[in-house]
């Protein structure tokens, strides 16, 4: 099975990247327990009106999430405020010589900060972390049919090369 390097991810967590963006600085790092309340607020920009997990449940889920090696919730901050986020899950795999693969979900930017490149920077950080953990590919699904959203992911370096299917217990949200 492929060995998952940890030094790069540890360095990234302890030394967030500073990225100048339009007279502001976007700082990218991995989320911590203390980030949960503003992170849950940010998720309302992803799915307005979505049921919010209680603080206790969110803390429990986050603690369980951290047990998946290589997985992380990346946040982008400006002036100590979380303005963008995405989640990377590193999945163990028995094919490709034991190389894991990455799944990116919950890509969101506060509406007031969209169009400034923040989500692209987060996707790059998540992808880089996936490569550091030995992933042979990173996949991302979107429920959006909006051409601007599709073009955003294409511009961020993702290719539409697979057909995705899903079964849902909860109905999809409306665009």
CATH secondary-structure class: Alpha Beta
User: Per CATH, what is the topology?
Assistant: Aminopeptidase
Q: Structural class from helices and strands?
A: alpha+beta
Number of domains: 1
User: In terms of quaternary structure, what is this?
Assistant: single chain
What does the model show?
InterPro entries: Acyl_CoA_acyltransferase, GNAT_dom, GNPNAT1-like. This protein is α+β, with helices and mostly antiparallel strands and 175 residues long. It has a single domain (7-155), classed as Gcn5-related N-acetyltransferase (GNAT) (Aminopeptidase, 3-Layer(aba) Sandwich), CATH 3.40.630. 29% of the residues lie in helices and 24% in strands. The chain has helices spanning 7-14, 36-43, 55-65, 118-132, 147-155, and strands at 17-21, 24-30, 72-78, 81-91, 101-109, 138-140.
Give the arrangement of secondary structure elements:
Elements: H1 7-14, E1 17-21, E2 24-30, H2 36-43, H3 55-65, E3 72-78, E4 81-91, E5 101-109, H4 118-132, E6 138-140, H5 147-155
Parallel strand pairs: 5-6
Antiparallel strand pairs: 1-2, 2-3, 3-4, 4-5
Keywords: Ribonucleoprotein, Ribosomal protein
Organism: Consotaella salsifontis
GO molecular function: N-acetyltransferase activity
Comma- or semicolon-separated keywords:
alpha+beta, Aminopeptidase, 6-stranded mixed beta sheet, 24% strand, disordered N terminus, Acyl_CoA_acyltransferase, GNAT_dom, ribonucleoprotein, N-acetyltransferase activity, Ribosomal protein S18 acetylase RimI
């Amino acid at each position: 099975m492929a060995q998952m390097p940890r030094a790069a991810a540890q360095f990234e967590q302890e030394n967030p990247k500073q990225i100048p963006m339009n007279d502001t600085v976007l700082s990218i790092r991995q989320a911590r327990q203390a980030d949960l309340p503003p992170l849950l607020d940010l998720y309302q920009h992803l799915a307005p009106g979505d049921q919010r997990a209680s603080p206790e449940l969110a803390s429990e889920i986050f603690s369980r999430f951290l047990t998946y090696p290589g997985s992380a919730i990346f946040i982008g901050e400006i002036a100590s405020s979380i303005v963008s986020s995405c989640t990377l899950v590193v999945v163990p795999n028995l094919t490709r010589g034991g190389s894991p693969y990455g799944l990116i979900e919950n890509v969101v930017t506060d509406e007031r900060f969209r169009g400034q490149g923040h989500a692209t920077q987060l996707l790059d950080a998540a992808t880089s972390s996936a490569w550091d953990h030995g992933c042979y590919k990173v996949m991302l699904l979107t429920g959006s049919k909006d051409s601007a959203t599709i073009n955003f992911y294409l511009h961020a370096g993702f290719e539409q090369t697979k057909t995705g299917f899903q079964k849902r217990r909860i109905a999809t949200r409306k665009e």
